[in-house]
């Protein structure tokens, strides 16, 4: 189908991508079992990673020419990116100013939260799958729970509220953590979101029969809390939300596998080495870094980005017989 003249990131299914996820680095200081192997991965060589100027240029093109209104910094672990505060300052100086958020494992956040907020970061999601130190060690292979908890409190104190918490439940590991995690988050004023485990780990260990589904999570929570559907419309947000015990606290479930929300997807993704992807699960990507390093003008880069998004598939196909896991793991794409 020929693409109509339109400056924005439209696709053939009528969706418009306004939400950009940018991976700042593929490196990480944790080794979550659902994400990467104990020994880590072969990190991208430094010269392959976008420089700060290249990164900010691509974000500027997204905001100025492609209609992107929201940018989320992720990775890998974005706090490991040198010069992060400077990048945040440059992105929030763009016009129109994008809303800027970050997903982090929270290590080192305690001492940086105030500076990140001051640089312009609006919101933060911290990943936390358990409040039990032993289970935290088992999942992340690092004994750092107290660092993460301190980071979350610092983010809240720095005004990045509500702090959102992302949790992945795994059978036989932390499945009994759903209720304690929610109690903890309600008490601290954090907004908890459970994410169904997806086939995006580097070691290809995901198993459909083993994953904890949204239905199971809701039934576990339903034993301790009264959940009522959240009154506000969901829009393009991936989380389905429920009020807990009448509110104001709430809980969300991102059921990417059992209740896919691809039809309302508003996302486009940029990897740390400058590839644009229309979906976490894409098998195609477009190398914008090569274009930029070959001297392409802003509008040429914008056109390549538009063409990639025009080719976005209807859905991720995890539930189809022929599903093939993407070659890049989540940590390299940006989760
Ligand atoms: N390192 C940061 C962190 O952990 O928040 C940012 C990158 S991480 C890839 C982004 C999010 O993806 C985290 O909330 C993590 O729990 C989630 N994630 C990683 N692997 C996943 C998987 N296989 N299925 C579902 N979520 C996953
Ligand atoms: Fe690192 Fe985040 Fe992956 Fe955990 S989920 S290993 S913190 S990138």
TrEMBL record:
GO terms for biological process, alphabetical: Mo-molybdopterin cofactor biosynthetic process
Molecular functions per Gene Ontology: 4 iron, 4 sulfur cluster binding; cyclic pyranopterin monophosphate synthase activity; GTP 3',8'-cyclase activity; GTP binding; metal ion binding; S-adenosyl-L-methionine binding
Assigned keywords, A-Z: 4Fe-4S, GTP-binding, Iron, Iron-sulfur, Lyase, Metal-binding, Molybdenum cofactor biosynthesis, Nucleotide-binding, S-adenosyl-L-methionine
Pathway the protein acts in: Cofactor biosynthesis; molybdopterin biosynthesis
Enzyme Commission number: 4.1.99.22
Pfam family, one: Radical_SAM
Radical SAM core domain boundaries: 12-238
InterPro entries, sorted: Aldolase_TIM, Elp3/MiaA/NifB-like_rSAM, MoaA, MoaA-like, MoaA_NifB_PqqE_Fe-S-bd_CS, MoaA_twitch, MoCo_biosynth_MoaA/MoaC, rSAM
UniProt-annotated binding residues for [4Fe-4S] cluster 2: 262, 265, 279
Cofactor(s) annotated in UniProt: [4Fe-4S] cluster
Chain sites annotated for binding [4Fe-4S] cluster 1: 28, 32, 35
Binding site for S-adenosyl-L-methionine: 34, 76, 127, 198
Cofactor note: Binds 2 [4Fe-4S] clusters. Binds 1 [4Fe-4S] cluster coordinated with 3 cysteines and an exchangeable S-adenosyl-L-methionine and 1 [4Fe-4S] cluster coordinated with 3 cysteines and the GTP-derived substrate.
Catalyzed reactions: GTP + AH2 + S-adenosyl-L-methionine = (8S)-3',8-cyclo-7,8-dihydroguanosine 5'-triphosphate + 5'-deoxyadenosine + L-methionine + A + H(+)
Origin: domain of life: Bacteria
Oligomer and partners: Monomer and homodimer.
Role this protein plays: Catalyzes the cyclization of GTP to (8S)-3',8-cyclo-7,8-dihydroguanosine 5'-triphosphate.
Family in the record: Belongs to the radical SAM superfamily. MoaA family.
Protein name: GTP 3',8-cyclase
Species: Amycolatopsis pretoriensis
